[in-house]
Sequence to fold (711 residues):
Amino acid sequence: MAVKDKGGKTGSGGGARLWFWRLVKIGAASAVFGLIALVVAVATVMGSLPSFNDLKSSPNGQMILVKAADGTEIMQLGPSFGEWLDIDNIPQVMKDAMVSVEDRRFAYHPGVDAIGIGRAIYTSATGGGRLRATSTITQQLARNIFLSNSRSYTRKIREGILALALEQKFSKDQILELYLNKVYFGGGAYGVDSASRKFFNHDATTLSLAEAAIIAGLVKAPSRYSPTADSEAAIGRAGVVLQVMQDVGTISPAQAADADLEGVKFAPEKGQNSVRYFTDWALPQLDTLIEGNDEPIVVWTTLDLNMQRAGTNAIQAYVPGGAQGALVALDRDGAVRAMVGGTDYVTSNYNRATSALRQPGSAWKLFVYMAALEAGYKPEDIVTDAPITIGGWTPRNSGGSYAGDISLRTAFAYSKNTVAARIGEDVGTSTIANMARRFGITTPITTLPSMVLGSSEVRVIDMVRAFAGVSSGGVAIAPYGITKVTTSKGDVLYQHEADLSQVLVPPYVTAGMTDLLQTAVNVGTGRAAQIGRPVAGKTGTTNSNKDGWFLGFSSGITTGVWMGRDDARPVGGLQGGTAPARAFAAFMKVAVAKRKVEPFDTELTLPEWQLEPDDEAYFGSPDDVIFIDENGNAVEPGEGPGASQPGGIPGDPQQPERLDENFIDRALGRDSAPQRPQARQAEPRPPVRRPPPGAQDERVASRLRDEDEGQ
Fold:
C-alpha cells in the first residue's frame, strides 16, 4: 500500500518527480560545465592561432618524389598555388557557388552548423541512411590548415573547436578568402586561381558562372570530377551546383539556364605518358599507407620502366582502329611491373586496366576448369563436345561444329563452349563463382548457366591477379604498386611486406590448370602468344567481338591484355587469339628477356581420395578371383573345406568366398543390396571417361586446329 506524504500524494509518485528534478539539475549542471570547458578550450586555441597574414603566407600541401623500381625518378608532384586573390578580387559567382554547395548557412553559424548536424542525426535515426559528416567551410579550412584527413571522433572534436576559434578571431570574409585560396581542387591545384589556370588557362578574376560551378563542384571529390580526368563528370557535377545555387536563391532560373556548361573550353592537358596510368592508381593509396605526414616524401614503386615502355608500345601497335586497350603485368609476389590503361593518356586518362568493367568471354573458363579439377577431373579425362540445352539455354561453339569425344585438355585448348556448359552443370555454377571469388574477382558474379562463358563483368587487374594465383601454385596474389615510402631524409614511413601465406587451392589443381593453359598456347586458340619459351595462357572473346582478351604467364611474369571499344560496340576481326595475343607476345618477349627459361610444373600429385581404385579394379575376370576362408584369410583354389567342389556353393559357409564387389557389400553391411555380376566392365560416369588407347587427342586436334580461333 502506497504511503501518502503530508500533501496527500503517494510516496512513489513523489519519488519519481524527485528523481526527475535531480536528473534535470544534473543535466543542467553538466551542460554549464561543458559550456565553460568549451569556452575555455576555444579561447585557448584562439590565442594560439597564427595571424591572418601568417596564414596567407604559409602554403599547405607536400612535395612527393616518385621513383621506379630501379630508383629512376618518374615524376615530382606537389602543390601548385596561383596568385593570392583578396576577397574583393574573387568573382561573386565563385563565392556564391562555393557557399551554396559547401555551406549554405555560412553567414549565420558560429563555425559549426548545429542545424545541419541535427538534420543529419534525424535523417540517420529515421532510416534515411548512415550518419554523414556536415563540415562547414570553416571546419574544412581548419582541417586543411591544421589537421589531417583521418576519420576519427577525436579529429572531429578538434576540428569543431578550431572552427569556433577561427570564427572568433577572423571575419567571415577573411575565412572565405583563406578557404578559396587554399582549398584543393585536384590535379595539384590549390586555390581558385591555380584551378582556373589549370583547367581553363586563365586567371580566376574572369571566371564565368559555368566555370565557377565546375570549380565549386570539384571540392567534393577532386579526382572523380576533375575535368582532366572526366570532363563529362565535371560538367554533370557543375549542373548539380547550378541547381543548388538556384534553390538557395543566389542565381535566378534564367541565369542557370544561360550558363553554357557544354560550351566551356577546357585547357589542353600538358603532355603526359602512360606512366600516369600507374601513378594515378598507386599514389592515392598513400592515404591509407601513411598518416599525419605533411613533409616532403619519396615514394618507391614497383614500376619497371622498360616493361612499361614495352607495354605501351604493344598496346599502341596492336589495338584495332577506333578501339582501346589495357595491359597489366604482375611479378611473382603481386608487384605491378607495367600498367597501361589506354592507347594515349593525353587524350584519355581513364584507366581501363583498373576501372573498366568488361565481359571476359572464354578467359573466364579458367575458373570453370579449376572448379572441375578440384572436383576430380583430370586433363586426360574424356568429355563430350556435343549440343546441350540447360534450362532453356543452348550454347554453341565458335565455329558451329562439335568434336564429339575429346579430352578435357583438348576441350580447353580449343575453348569448347558445350564442354564448359557440361562442367558447369556437373560441378555447379555457384562452385565456379566461389572459385572466382577465391582468386580475387571482386565484381558481381551471376550464377546462371551462361556464366561459364564469361557473362559476368570483370576488371583487367582482377583477372591478371587470378592468373597470377595459378602461376604461383595456388597462393593468393595481391597486386601492389608501392614498395616503400621515406622522408626526404631517408626515414622509412612505410615498407611493403608481401603476404604469400594464403593457399587458395591444392597444388594439383594449379598443376592441372597450367597443363591446360600451356596446351592452349602450344596447339590451341592462343598460338599467337608463343614467345619461344614456355607460356601458359587463355584467350577470351565476347559476343560480336566486343572484347578481346589474352591472359597468361611465363618465367614469373603474369600479364593480361584487353582490347575493345569504350562504347562496347563490335570491333571487326577482334578475337582473343589475334591482336590481344600478339600484343601479349610482343610485351612478354621484352619483359622476360633477361629472366631464365622456366619449364612449368604440370605433374599432378593427386590427393588420396582421387587415388582410390576405380570400379574396374573390383570387377576383374572370373579367373582372377581371390578366395578367402571363414576367417578372411586368402586360400588357394582347391584348398580348405569343400575343395572337392571348385567354386563352392554360394552361401555355403564351408566354401571359400570370392573377394568381389558382393563380398564388399556384405562386409560393409549392405547385404540387402542387389547381387552384382561376378565380372563386368564399369559404365563410364558422364561427363568424364578415361581415354581409349591410341592417339585420339592428336586426331581430334588435327580437326580442330583451324576452328574456334576466337574463343
